[in-house]
Amino acid sequence: MNWSEQVVLVTGGTGSFGKKFVELMLREYHPHKLIIFSRDELKQHDMRAAGFDHPSLRYFIGDVRDAQRLERALSGVTVVIHAAALKQVPACEYNPFEAIQTNIMGGRNVIDAAINMGVRRILALSTDKAVNPINLYGATKLCAEKMFVQANAYAGAQNTRFSCARYGNVVGSRGSVIPVFLEQRKQGKITVTDPRMTRFWLTLERGVRFVVRCIEQMHGGEIFVPKIPSMKLVEIAEAVAPGCEVEFIGIRPGEKLHEVLVSEDEARNTLELPDMFVIQPAHNWWRKENWQEALPLPDGFRYTSDTNPHWLTPEELHELIDAGSPRPVETPAPQKQRASA
Q1: Taking the alpha carbons of 24, 28, 29, 34 in that order, is the dihedral positive or negative?
Q2: pLDDT tens, 109-149?
Q3: Which of 8, 131, 183, 291 has the fewest Cβ atoms surrounding its Cβ within 10 A?
Q4: Domain extents for the chain?
Q5: Which pTM was predicted?
Q6: Within 13 Å, how many C-alpha atoms sit on residue 112's CB side?
Q7: DSSP-derived 3-state class of residue 197
Q8: How is the chain split among helix, strand and coil, in percent rounded to 5?
């Protein structure tokens, strides 16, 4: 697809993913217009002051809970990345109605507005916690995945297509355990839930590039899963805070010992490519000739953080942390003619 012809909107555009996505779009893809849709005016101001102030950028105040505002924002938009969500597991457990309103009903509003306004491609961000969920956050993201896959049937013959991207923990993002370890290191003591606990890891930039690739290649209905490395939490603690005391505090409510990105049941409808898995929808509108270059998975396959063939070394972890560290925003020089409003 020719990104220079696209009008792109990212919900939750002032978050960690949104800022990195906007940075990459401005630096390499140069869309005709790029809309940052979020509900926090201060974060939008801070983002603009930090260098995100290009003529192709638009800042829209809005909440995915507001269907009318979404429909107005999506006028003329061709591509949507739906990144807005309540993501903190304890906050979702304590405020369940709020999590449902944002993660499920907000997702429905995005779907309805995109169909009504004729958006071409919509990709929703998901999480490993949506697989066999044991907390409310994971349950809401599972519902969102189901809605965005089935939204292709609601679109019907209209040229509007929906897919999802599902991946694991992002190094250095808000809510990541690594910043917590780095802060605890100052006190000489690190708290770890369980010495056996493992997690998937990737950098923010790799996650953004994966999303861009999924948008370019989607047929509509897929859940895309990247192949990413795993590491034990206790090894992460030892790598980022060597010499510190490690205290094991036990698994908290809503946490898993290991994460799953492709379950055994999903694997029956999943195809494998060299660097990712494609979970196909089990619906009659799905065309079986899609992704003919991919290979089916063997019986009993599961993609989990504890059985992952790719494990991070401490050296590789430090490379990921360095790659995920904030850097000055470099955007291209403004073009002579400002994009139309």
Answers
A1: positive
A2: 999 999 999 999 999 999 999 999 999 999 999 999 999 99
A3: 183
A4: 3-167+202-226+261-300
A5: 0.91
A6: 15
A7: coil
A8: 40, 20, 40
CA count, 13 A, side-chain hemisphere, 304: 14
Residue 13: the pLDDT is 95
Q: Reply yes or no on whether 129 is catalytic.
A: yes
Distance (Å, whole) CA 75 – CA 77? 6
- Residue pair 203/319 in contact (Cβ under 8 Å)? The answer is no
| Location of structure tokens 């494609």 | 278
Domain 3-167+202-226+261-300, classified CATH 3.30.420.340, yes or no: no
Token pair in block for residue 137: 């956050």
Count of beta carbons in the 10 Å neighbourhood of residue 166:
22
Catalytic residue among 129, 227, 232, 256: 129
Q: What is the pLDDT of residues 44-101, one digit of tens each?
A: 999 999 999 999 999 999 999 999 999 999 999 999 999 999 998 889 999 999 999 9
At residue 80, φ and ψ (nearest 5 deg) are -125, 135
